Structure formats: C-alpha cells, structure tokens
Amino acid sequence: MIKSQYEQVQLKYMTDLRAIETKFIQCKDKLKLIDSRRQTEQHTFTGDIQSIKKRVINFERYIKRLKKHVDEEKTTELISELENTDVAQVDMDQLIMDIKKIEEEVKDSKRFKLP
C-alpha cells in the first residue's frame, strides 16, 4: 500500500516537474527573443544617433562657412553658397523630428529602466 501511494505521489511530482520544465523552456525562449529584439533596437538606436551626429556636424560646418562669408562681407560668395550647397537641401525639420524621436526613446528607456 505504501508502495502504491509512493508511486502516486512520485507520478504527481513527475507530472508537475515536466510542467515546470516546459514553462522554464518557454520562458528561456521568450528571454532569448526579448534579448535579440533588444540588441536589434540598440543597434538601430546607435545607428540613428550616429546619423544625427553626422547631420548636425554638417550643419555646423555649413553655418561656419556662411558666418565666415558674412564676417568677411562677401555677399556674392554667401549667395552662391546658399544656392549651390547640398547641406542647404537637407531638411532641418526632419532633423529636429529625428532628434525628438531619439529623446522620446531615451525617456522610454529610462522609464522602463532598459540598459
């Protein structure tokens, strides 16, 4: 009788152990997926930051060239620079929107305490 009871208890615990093992494997897989997603988002975020930095540096250089023309009172060079430069074609509003988007992502990251 004790042997029968022991087998029943052992069967119950083995069933529970298998259920826990299945849940553990599911959690482990979910964690891998979350980590993969986090790494992808981190790479994308880093790329966005680098892109914005390059655009800001280009704007700074452009503004310095324009300021130099203004300081030296070279009106024709200033007009020529304004008409013919590629930097002037860059949409400043888009840059501002991109920076705001990054700021929001940083705020969300801090709120959820993501590394």
Description:
By secondary structure, the chain is mainly alpha-helical. It has one domain. It has helices spanning 2-71, 75-84, 92-111. Helix 1 runs antiparallel to helix 2 and helix 1 runs antiparallel to helix 3 (92-111).
List the defining traits of the structure above.
115 residues; mainly alpha; 87% helix
Write the layout of secondary structure elements.
Elements: H1 2-71, H2 75-84, H3 92-111
Helix pairs in contact: 1-2, 1-3
In a few lines, what is going on in this structure?
With 115 residues, the protein is an all-alpha fold. It contains three helices and no strands.
Order of helices and strands: HHH
Q: How many discrete structural domains?
A: 1
Low-confidence stretches: none
Described by the principal axes of the CA atoms, the overall outline is rod-shaped
* Fraction of residues in helix: over 70%
Evaluate the radius of gyration: 30 Å
Largest sheet: none
- Class computed from helices, strands and strand pairing: mainly alpha
The CA-CA distance between the termini, in Å, is 57 Å
Could you report the average pLDDT, rounded to the nearest whole number? Answer: 82
How many helix segments?
A: 3
Care to count the β-strands?
0
Q: What fraction of the residues are assigned to beta strands by DSSP? A: under 5%
